[in-house]
Amino acid sequence: MERSTDSAEAQLLRLGLTLPEPLPPFGEYVPAVRSGRQLWVGGHFGTHADGSIFTGKVGESVSVDAACGAARSAAINLLATVRAELGSLDEVSQIVRVFGVVNSTPDFSGQTGVIDAASSVFVEVFGDRGRHARLAVGVAALPGDLVLEIEAVLDIAERVAAPEAGEA
Predict the structure, then answer these.
(1) What letter would DSSP give residue 156?
(2) CA–CA separation, 50 and 144 (whole Å)
(3) Are strands 133-139 and 92-103 parallel, antiparallel or unpaired?
C-alpha cells in the first residue's frame, strides 16, 4: 500500500487507471459542492467500457461479481468528478466518508462486500488517505434501475497562499 504522502495522480499511473470524463448531472443538482475544506460528491454509478450504465438488481439479474465491477467503476467515475472539481487528486488530504446504496433483493445481505470494491479503489489510489468511514445499505430500487450508487465526503489539502506582491 502507498504511504499517505504519495501522489494520488502518480499512483493512478502506476495502477494503469485512466479516469473517464466526469459524468454529467442527470437532474437539477451539481456533481460536487465544496464547503470550506471539504468536497461533498453526490451519487455516482458504474459504467461499462462502452459507456453504458450498470443496471439491474443484485441477487436477481446481477451477480455479486458484476455488482463489484459496478462499484469499482462508480469509484473511478467519482474520482473523475473530484479531479474535475479540484484540478488534481493530489488536493485530497483524506477520503472521510463513503455512502453506498445497492439495488438488491430483500434476501441479499452482501451489500458491504459489494461496496468494498469501491472502497478498495480509494485505498489503492490514496493509500491510508483513502481509508474512510462508510455505510453500505440495500434498497428495493434505484432511479433508472441502477445497480448501485456511491457518494463521498473528502477533506481537501490546506494550502498556504503565497504573499501578494508588496506584502511582507
Answers:
(1) E
(2) 18
(3) parallel
User: Average pLDDT of 60-75?
Assistant: 98
* DSSP one-letter string for 70-128: HHHHHHHHHHHHHHHHHS-GGGEEEEEEEEEEEEB-TT---HHHHHHHHHHHHHHHHGG
The CATH architecture to which 36-156 belongs is 2-Layer Sandwich (3.30)
Do the Cβ atoms of 117 and 76 come closer than 8 Å? no
Q: How far is CA 32 from the centre of its chain?
A: 11
Note the pLDDT tens digit of each residue in 94-133.
999 999 999 999 999 999 999 999 999 999 999 999 999 9
Interaxial angle between packed helices 111-126 and 64-86, expressed in degrees from 0 to 180 and rounded to the nearest 10: 40
Domain edges within the chain:
36-156
C-alpha cell at 37: 475544506
Q: Of 112, 108, 102, 101, which is closest to residue 152 (Cα–Cα)?
A: 101
16-61 pLDDT tens trace: 999 999 988 888 999 999 999 999 999 999 999 999 999 999 999 9
